[in-house]
Amino acid sequence: MATKVHMEALSPTMEEGQVVKWLKSEGDSVSNGDILAEIETDKATMELSARGKGVLRKILVQEGGTAPVGDVIAVIAAPDEDVSDVVGDAGGVSPPEAGEEDREASAPEDQEESEAPERPSSEEKAAKEAPSEGAASPDGGRVRASPLARRLAQEAGLELDEIDGSGPEGRVVKRDVEAALERDVRLPAAAPGEEYRDVPVSQMRKTIARRLTESLSPVPHFFLTIDVDMTRVVEARRRMNALLEDDGVKVSVNDIVLRATAAALLRHPACNASWQGDTIRVYDVVHLGVAVAVEDGLITPIVRNAHAKGLVQIGSEVREMAGRAREKKLKPDEYTGATFSVSNLGMLGIQEFTAIINPPEAGILAVGRLEDRPVAVDGELTVMPRMRMTMSCDHRVIDGATGARFLQTLQGMLEEPTSILL
Amino acid sequence: MAEMTYRDALNAALREELERDDSVFLMGEEVAEYDGAYKVSKGLLEEFGERRIVDSPISELGFAGLGVGAAMVGLRPIIEFMTFNFAFLALDQIINSAAKMLYMSDGLIPVPVVFRGPTGAALQLSAQHSQSCETWYAHAPGLKLVTPGTPADAKGLLKAAIRDNDPVAFMEGELLYNVRGEVPDDDDFVIPLGKADVKREGEDVSIVTHGKMVHTALAAAKKLEKQGVSVEVLDLRCLRPLDVDAILSTVKKTNRAVYLEEGWSFVGVGSQIVSIIQEEAFDWLDAPVLRVCQADVPMPYAKNLEQMAKPSADRVVEACNRVLYRRA
Amino acid sequence: MAKAGTVSRGEEGVAPEKLLRGVPQETALELLEDMLLYRRFEEKTEEAYAIGMIGGFCHLHIGQEGVAAGFVKPLRIDDYILTSYRDHTQAIAKGVEPRAVMAELFGKAGGCSGGKGGSMHMFGPDVGFMGGHGIVGGQVPLAIGMGFAAKYRGEDRVTVCFMGDAAVNQGGFHEALNMAAVWDLPVLFVVENNEYGMGTAFHRVSDTEIKDRARAYGIPESVVNGQDVLETYNHCSELVEEMRRGGGPRYVEARTYRFKGHSMSDPVSGTYRSREEVEHRRDEDDPIQILRDRLFQVGALTQEALEEMDERVLAVVEEAYEFADASPLPAPESLYAHVWSDVNEHGRLFFDGRPEAPAPGETPPSGGPGEEA
Question: Closest chain B residue to A167 measured between Cα atoms?
């Protein structure tokens, strides 16, 4: 009985995936649970396991190829079994057989919109000698290219993953780069006189675009800004770091902001909530999503139970996950399930900004730069360290006053850090 | 320019150098009265006498050592091995004495000796008489290695080898002795060691080779020309010193290379060339560098098996097509 | 000729010239001083090795000084000699400065081979010392090459080729002897028969005698007592004259004995030689004692003069040691120097990652091995 290997949704938001590497080859024997391939999702690189046993008879999507969730990408069967009808199902835009599909409906429109090149047809697959086609995975994945092709592509400003490789195993070689330069499908680096250059869109960028567009339209956003005196935070931080000197760790301002936010959210559970349609889910614990910039976009790894963790632990978790996020090694449960998010662009010089809420959360805090500013205190001009925070609220869940009261509490905690202990 | 055989070119080189410098003498089996097993030394006994052209007993280790000893005290011996297959017996003197003497004495004692003779296969001479010996000689520092493939190269390089103050292994080929080619008339025609030669210019793929295989490379190039492929053939001519600039230059020009040699593939000469190419011209490579070598077996006797074992123009064509990603 | 193992201690009432075997007294004293120098030098070498100043292999000639002195003194500076790796004393005998030999042992820049050769590869071409060679019998074909060159050039210089008893079983030895005979080459083959090839007694590995090998190739052979330096000296002088007159090659078995192990890693006795054997030979068969006693007997030497002689040679040895100790290690550039005589302007000669070979004496470019940590 042949087993179809499908492109599975390996991340909650995945709609299509790219085969980075097949760990089994055609002809290899396969047992239930064996890892078949590495798949690049919108977030990270995931492993695809076998759900049947036998021999991997056919690979229908080669390394570098993409397929929407639900498509058949390989077939496992007994060595002598006739699999021709199963193989014929593969590829194209047609949905998988009824009954086999239990994934979130993959939008066929996605395929037309997507910039992934054509999926190879089964006839082409059968021709053994034909070099495989298919785009290489984005930088960071396995792109097969000759050193020369790599250099030529780089010099021309082309992404290798956008070039079809005609060499063995889909290797991109010189003639492919030259062909790409001649075609108008991908425009080359701006020639003298041209004013723009089209840069191909990666998986991650597509996802960010889709999700945040989805967020902004249905979620009624409003924004609250508050300015905070950070004198005591700066002082407290200094004292804490002196204590930590022997341990070789440091506490950052952001760690303190995160901890204070978690504490404040516990006092204002209405802000630590989620619109569910006919209910609002209010959380008793705080799982803070911390926005991290990665090479091609951003991702929010989560500090779970941030209300219960010390600053050192929060700081080390954030750093550790940020590192793995940049290598696309986060697991789905590490970036899904936040109850509230925090984004800090202070280190990039931004004084204040408004962030877009990550659904299904109801709020996100945008933290600006900590800097010395002149302030009037009792009619006198003085200089003190100040920081602006802007909270974006889902008006279906949080009203103006609710949000404002949360921010006041948070401000109070930052202006008097000992209150966090209460 | 005169047209002559490879053998006659060598003969002329020997004659000219013997005339030019009295410290030059030739010793080996059958070199004098027999006129040389392959007639390379024809007429030399008559012209120069038995002081300078010396028939030796079959004592490769002994007379190789004699050559080294004589060189150590200022003569310039040319020691002929009837074939380099027999020179294995002499390797102790060639490597432990000749190659190392200058270094061990920290420059006090140079060894200007030339060891020459044919290497590689001929026709159905079987395993012990068909070896390509380059690798054994290329390995040791202190020993130079020259492998001319054409009459002009043979003449110019032999003169250079004799004049060189280091020990030089000069490898000819039985199947080369009758090859004809143009040779400059100049009696002081010397080709400096370490300069390769583009025997054929091309754009699409480089065949790098040495010794008699240059003719196989050229034959392969002709075949590929008919298929619309332009082949460049680089003849190294000298393996140590090695013209690395020429190798890199041709690879940077065509972006793909095939090394062709008569010897076996494991640690064959090609392994070193490929190493240099991938290290120093990595970003110019559009394909891996391939090698065409003898089959990894001792040379068989039967005609068909020997044919299969040896590199051929067809195998070179196939390798070129692979690096061109062409289906022939 | 006295056989090795017997003592010729001078008989009562015999004329001095006879006691000195016709060697002039002056020369005999010089021979004694030479041997004493070699002995003290090798003893100092042994000491230096034991405290770690010398590394690797070190083969001492103690006990065999009679061969080194007797077979080199009659030679001219332009005659060539070669020997095996047991070469310290022959090097000094032929004219390489003791300080240069000691510095070479220490692996220092002031060594005769710049520290690049070591114990087994002493060289002094300007005094005709053509090495120190590591492969047993390797020097024998080289020697006939030098003999060939001498004859080729019409010179009357001779080549003396020393080797051990075990070398006579090497193929190259046979090939060389044959060619030396066929071409009448002026080469004197001196086989220092100390009865053991490293740990193997000669007769365990040969059914024929050492001298018979020469006969097989048509070379006149002889045997001498290597411990009697006057005998070796006389015999060598005789043979060399014959060879200079175009007499062709000669072959001598010099019977001798080594008082130390094969090398510094080999025990003096207890494995393949009994302690009694070694001690007996040391007591009865020491070439220095033998000559000394004769010189005492003919009144050419007093104890006082002997001690002064000893002091003189000890001073030389001490100076050599000081020099070697003070000499610097070879410069890093030396690693790549003198691999090639001609560094051609074309082509690469070094393949260990450095871009180009340095010209002799030049500082190599950085990178690749050879950089000091």
Answer: B325
> What does the buried/exposed string (b/e) look like for A317-341 if buried means 16 or more CB atoms within 10 Å of the residue's CB?
bbeebbebbeebebebebbbebbbb
Question: Given CB atoms, is B228 within the 8 Å cutoff of chain C?
Answer: no
The residues near B90 (Cβ < 8 Å, ≥ 6 apart) are: B60, B61, B63, B64, B65, B81, B115
CB contact under 8 Å between B285 and A175, yes or no, is no
Long-range Cβ contacts of A102-111 (<8 Å, 24+ apart): A103/A6, A103/A8, A103/A9, A103/A69, A103/A70, A104/A9, A104/A15, A104/A69, A106/A15, A106/A16, A106/A68, A106/A69, A106/A70, A106/A71, A107/A15, A107/A68, A108/A68, A110/A15, A110/A16, A110/A68, A111/A16, A111/A68
Bridge partners of residue A40, in order along the sequence = A18, A45
* Smallest CA–CA distance from B325 into chain A, residue: A167
CATH for B197-323 (3.40.1410.10, 3.50.50.60, 3.30.300.20, 3.40.50.920): 3.40.50.920
Alpha helices in B57-163, H assignment, sequence order: 60-72, 91, 100-104, 134-138, 151-163
Residue A243 lies in a domain: yes
Interface test with B, best of A133, A146, A175 (most B CBs within 10 A): A146
In a mutagenesis test of the C interface, which of B21, B60, B103 is the best target, namely the one with the most C β-carbons within 10 Å? B103
**Tens digits of residue pLDDT in B4-61:** 999 999 999 999 999 999 999 999 999 999 999 999 999 999 999 999 999 999 999 9
Within 10 angstroms of residue C326's Cβ, the number of other Cβ atoms is 12
Q: What is the 3-state secondary structure (H, E, C) of chain A?
A: CCEEEECCCCCCCCCEEEEEEECCCCCCEECCCCEEEEEECCCCEEEEECCCCEEEEEECCCCCCEEECCCEEEEEECCCCCCHHHHHCCCCCCCCCCCCCCCCCCCHHHHHHCCCCCCCCHHHHHCCCCCCCCCCCCECECCCECHHHHHHHHHHCCCHHHCCCCCHHHCECHHHHHHHHHCCCCCCCCCCCCCCCCCCCCHHHHHHHHHHHHHHCCCCEEEEEEEEECHHHHHHHHHHHHHCHHHCCCCCHHHHHHHHHHHHHHHCHHHCEEECCCCEEECCCCCEEECEEECCEEECCEECCHHHCCHHHHHHHHHHHHHHHHCCCCCHHHHCCCCEEEEECHHHCCCCCCCCCCCCECEEEEECCCEEEEEEECCEEEEEEEEEEEEEEECCCCCHHHHHHHHHHHHHHHHCHHHHHC
Domain membership of residue A26 as a residue range:
3-115
Nearest to B103 among C116, C140, C351 (CB): C116
Place of tokens 């909530």: A273
pLDDT digits (tens, 9 = 90+) for C136-181: 999 999 999 999 999 999 999 999 999 999 999 999 999 999 999 9
Q: Give residue-wise pLDDT tens across range B52-96.
A: 999 999 999 999 999 999 999 999 999 999 999 999 999 999 999
B152 CB neighbour count, 10 Å cutoff: 20
CATH code, domain with C173: 3.40.50.970
ipTM: 0.93
Residue C123, CB-side half-sphere exposure with 13 Å CA sphere = 25
Chains A and C share 3 or more Cβ pairs within 8 Å: no
- CA dihedral sign of residues A173, A179, A182, A188: negative
Residues in chain C closer than 8 A to B110 (CB atoms): 341
A375: number of Cβ within 10 Å: 14
CATH number of the domain residue A377 falls in = 3.30.559.10
B129 included as an active-site residue: yes
Same domain, C270 and C340: no
